[in-house]
Write a structure and sequence with these properties.
The chain is α+β, with helices and mostly antiparallel strands. It has one domain. 40% of the residues lie in helices and 18% in strands. It is built from six helices and six strands. The C terminus is likely disordered.
C-alpha cells in the first residue's frame, strides 16, 4: 500500500532550495546528486552519514507527516482536497531561518515565532487527518518503544505522528 505525505518544497530556482539541496547533496526535482559547498568537503564521509536520512526525501518542509490512506478514501479525493487547499492561498511572510536540532535531526526553522506558519501547520495537520487510516497496533508499539514522552504519545495517538506541534514551540 502506498503511503502519503504533504510536503512543501521551495521552487527549484530559489536560493533557499539550492542551498538546502547542496547541503544534502541531492536535488529532489532532478533525482540527481549535487556538489556540496566547499566548506563541507573537509569530512565528506561524516557529512554523508549525517545527511543520509534527509537525502532520501530531499530538501522539504513536512506539512502532513506520512500516513496510510483511510479505507474509506481514495487517492483522487486526497489530491482534490490538496488542490482545493492550495488554491486558497496561504501567504507566509519572509522569515529568517535558523538551524536547530529537533528530536535528533537538524532542521531549518524560523528564527522567530510565525503565527502564519503555525496556522498553516495546524490546518495541514488537522484538515488532512481525515484522510489518514488508523495506525496499526504494531506500528504504534514500535514508535512508543523508541522512547517517546507522554506528549509525543498523545500526538501519535491523535495525529499518527509523535512530533507535531506548532513551529513556534521550537523558537
Amino acid at each position: 500500500m502506498p503511503r502519503y505525505a504533504i510536503y512543501f518544497v521551495p521552487p527549484a530556482e530559489t536560493e533557499f532550495f539550492r542551498f538546502g539541496s547542496a547541503v544534502l547533496g541531492y536535488d529532489c526535482y532532478t533525482g540527481g546528486g549535487i556538489k556540496r559547498p566547499a566548506i563541507l568537503d573537509a569530512e565528506p564521509e561524516f557529512w554523508d552519514r549525517l545527511t543520509a536520512e534527509p537525502r532520501r526525501y530531499g530538501f522539504h518542509a513536512t506539512l502532513k507527516a506520512p500516513f496510510d490512506l483511510a479505507p474509506s478514501c481514495q487517492e483522487a479525493q486526497l489530491v482534490s482536497a490538496l488542490h482545493s487547499f492550495a488554491g486558497l492561498g496561504h501567504a507566509i511572510a519572509a522569515l529568517t531561518p535558523a538551524v536547530q536540532m529537533l528530536s535528533g535531526f537538524a532542521a531549518i526553522v524560523p528564527a522567530a515565532t510565525s503565527p502564519a506558519i503555525d496556522e498553516l501547520a495546524t490546518k495541514c495537520t488537522t484538515i488532512f487527518d481525515a484522510f489518514r487510516a488508523p495506525m496499526a497496533a504494531q506500528e504504534r508499539a514500535r514508535r512508543v518503544a523508541s522512547g517517546l514522552n507522554q506528549g509525543q504519545i498523545a500526538n501519535l495517538d491523535r495525529w499518527g505522528y509523535p512530533y507535531w506541534l506548532p513551529i513556534s514551540d521550537f523558537t
